[in-house]
Design goal:
This protein has 158 residues and is α/β, with parallel strands linked by helices. The chain has seven helices and five strands, in the order H-E-H-H-E-H-E-H-E-H-E-H. Helix 1 runs parallel beside helix 3 and helix 3 packs parallel to helix 4.
Amino acid sequence: MKLYEALEAVDNGATELDVMINLAQLKQGQTDSVYRSIAEICEESNVLVKAILETNVLTPDELELAVKLSIDAGAGYIMTGTGWNGGVTLETVRHLKTLTKGQIGIKAAAGIQDLEFAIDLLTAGATRLGTSYAIAMLRQYEAAKQPKDEPRLDPTGS
């Protein structure tokens, strides 16, 4: 089903895919199935695949295994999570940087709401960020660039 949905998305114009690994299979030790699922999508879709790991629900051993399987399967990125079980942490990104050894990109996602945290995540090793607060962060950045004595533009127009 995942492969069908991935190919359908590509047929409809997707140039990148965020694909959730099968957490139940990973936790049950069915690593061949986890690998095949990601590898098939990478091979068949011919687009950048980001494997979503949900790092907050994985043990250290499971996380290491999920990273290895994602790299071996051909994913271009690992993504920390969707946010359903908490946000990303700096410690997680630092750990992922160690595990990946630069072999794959790291997309930090979930709970990134301000510019300072975003910059800290990038400094820690994230190569991409997933956030719905990008506009607010750009406003924070622009406000920080403005000299204190200059009038500031209000991007809302009010």
